Amino acid sequence: MKLNTLLFLSITLLSVVYSNAQHDDFAIKINAKAFNPSTVSWYNTPAKKWDEALPVGNGRLGAMVFGRSGEERIQLNEETYWSGSPYSTVVKGGYKVLPEIQKLVFEEKYLAAHNLFGRNLMGYPVEQQKYQSLANLHLFFKNQDSTSEYKRWLNLESGITSVSYKSNGITYQREVFASAPDQVIVIRLTADKSSSISFKANLRGVRNQAHSNYATDYFRMDPYGSDGLILTGKSADYMGVAGKLKYEARIKAVPEGGTMKTDGVDLIIENANAVTLYFAAATNFVNYKDVSANPHQRVEDYFTKIKGKSYTAIFEAALADYKQYFDRVSLQLPITENSFLPLPERIQKIQTNPDPSLSALSYNFGRYLMIASSRPGTEPANLQGIWNDDMNPSWDSKYTTNINTQMNYWPVESSNLSECAEPLVRFIKELTDQGSQVAREHYGAKGWVFHQNTDLWRVAAPMDGPTWGTFTVGGAWLCTHLWEHYQYTMDAAFLKETYPLMKGSVQFFMDFLKPHPNGKWLVTNPSTSPENFPDGGGNKPYFDEVTASFREGTTICAGSSIDMQILDDLFGYFVEASAILGDNGAFVQQMKAAREKLVPPQIGKDGSLQEWADDWKSLEKNHRHFSHMYGLYPGKVLYEKRTPALIEAYKKVLEERGDASTGWSRAWKMALWARLGDGNRANKIYKGFIREQSCSSLFALCGRAPQVDGTFGVTAAITEMLMQSHDGFIKLLPALPDDWSSGAFKGVCARGAFELDYVWKNKQLTQLRIKSKAGGICRLEALPNVRVATQNGKTVAFQKLPNGIIEIKTVKGEVYVVE
């Protein structure tokens, strides 16, 4: 069958069937070429290590499923289980030395400024708290050491991960999913022969590894009646902050047939026909200032809610809840023979054997992780989403806001998951608490400020030392997401509600910006270009008093390019918001004048875009960050100010730093090349990412550490390759790779609150439907011989502007067919 408008029907979808014998016995059958390779990842071996396990989540609870036979391991998380307790890192009176630090920076005495900042403006403690691993469920099976016909898979269309194998002539199967409606993780065990399921279960806590700053945490494992196990404990003290989080985790078993008992810390089931295990967990966390909840009562309430419910009822509620999000969008790209291989083989062969549907799988996996880790009412996704098996995880598995947290939410609006941005919006609101204190005490400024890292407790002061902590635009960058949410939804009530957050950030920078010695510019001082050491301004290795170690140099400067670009965007968005809301007072006029004095994009002597206000180069040749390219993507300022010379300067930066790097860095490069219209280059980078910086589970890697940022970034970048709407109109197939010559994208969202369904063949658009979710004018890039009609066939007049852009006046809720 040719790949055309029937693309969605060109493959047999995953078969989902109920057993005739047991209506609550759910099974999935995967046979050769009998599944959708864009929404199913499958494997012919169990996970050998954590990052090969498959994730499920309901926004609050997460599990990584290994899919083993003799001893299964399911690693478990609860999103609010962190070290520490409510605390503050605000240091009073730092603003008194700020003028001296700024003077030293302008005098190019960077090391002196670095040390003065470290002694007076760094938050205390200088490190933050860590996201923790909650528990592991171990299932020890009898007589299942030798297996055949093994397969495990993750079905993104249902949110279920499954394993199936044959042992001693019996086929065993397990399904695991996380229910948002019932707030439990469900493990269903079945066999094709009655009385065949026998196992012992343990629910184990996790100890902190040896660390000089950890105090002893504790946990206790106990039976819970004759049908369950319970784990209770408290979080660790860290960096002088007392661990006050208490938790309870509980397993309840519901066997069908056979016997069940508890013996010490073991739950023992013998000769059952089928077994369902329900996992629930909670902490005493209420919010970032309050840990007064009762975890036992919370868990008790969860189990009370499901009491009397059948497995089928719980499953169907979870499936319906999940599909209301996932089914909004569908992406199909060309399918090849390799598309049906186990995922690790697909990954290895992609460089030499095109498999475009693997890109669609990556896109869909990013949406799946968003639904699984960021739901209304939950915490936002951290560096690892909600999945972490380490008590001392890389970078504490916290919120890093010089790129990573923002990247997590790059795809949320375009991929039709606007509700999943709610945790990020609430996160920004909560940061203004300590953020306003830091603005006042550290900088003597109004408004609020936030730097490059925070944790569950929403601390906002600089941390990790001046090299990293002088990034003052973390909160400003987050505020651009507020404007993006408005752009995609056109929700005036939301804009009015969040306008004070944007205004508070702008107020801080109106106080913080200082005249540059050249008399032309306003700049941030101190400033930094995240994590990159400049080879300029007399920078050289030095002994860092804060970290007591030798460093490459200091990153402190004045007016880094990323600072200027973020503020240019934020100030511009604030101008638009103020006009919509009728706020045209003196402050807005002052801010407009200040915006005109921000350092503009500059081209250095070598023809590349400057990363700093001064024409410095990076000490590291292939640095992972592209901070000075923020304004090209995800921002707008570099795109809006582009000239042929600047476009070449952007490309020179990308060429200099190369295509290889960490997972999140490659995702960013994909998006940047997509903005420049080069889909083949973006696709080449994707292939390198998937082979070298992606786990077989499709979690991205940052070096050797699994993270979710790169996974989310790839989802966003794939959208940019297929649709862009940042330039005031919708551009379809703006960076289409040759490999993706045909395909279909359904449900993708554009700014202006438009939802698009479109199909292309031989790189040519063949069908386009536009749903207007807010009314207003829809602008499209020029298309030849266009006819516009409503869904019922009524012709709609449209205007064609001199630049070729097509304008369609739309009605809220109406669907328009463009032919």
Give the secondary structure arrangement, pairings included.
Elements: E1 15-18, E2 26-29, E3 40-43, E4 54-57, E5 61-65, E6 71-78, H1 98-106, H2 110-120, E7 135-141, E8 148-155, E9 160-167, E10 170-179, E11 184-191, E12 197-205, E13 218-223, E14 228-234, E15 246-256, E16 259-263, E17 266-272, E18 274-283, H3 295-306, H4 311-326, E19 330-332, H5 343-349, H6 356-373, E20 399-400, H7 404-408, H8 422-443, E21 453-454, H9 466-469, H10 474-489, H11 492-512, E22 514-515, E23 522-523, E24 534-535, E25 542-544, E26 549-551, H12 561-581, H13 586-595, E27 617-618, H14 637-640, H15 644-657, H16 663-675, H17 679-692, E28 700-702, E29 705-707, H18 709-722, E30 723-724, E31 731-732, E32 743-750, E33 754-761, E34 764-772, E35 776-780, E36 788-790, E37 799-800, E38 806-810, E39 815-818
Antiparallel strand pairs: 1-2, 3-8, 4-5, 5-6, 6-7, 7-12, 8-9, 9-10, 10-11, 11-18, 12-17, 13-14, 14-15, 15-18, 16-17, 19-32, 20-21, 22-23, 24-27, 25-26, 28-29, 30-31, 32-33, 33-34, 34-39, 35-38, 36-39, 37-38
Domain Glycosyl hydrolase family 95 catalytic: 310-722
Domain Glycosyl hydrolase family 95 N-terminal: 42-287
Protein name: Glycoside hydrolase family 95 protein
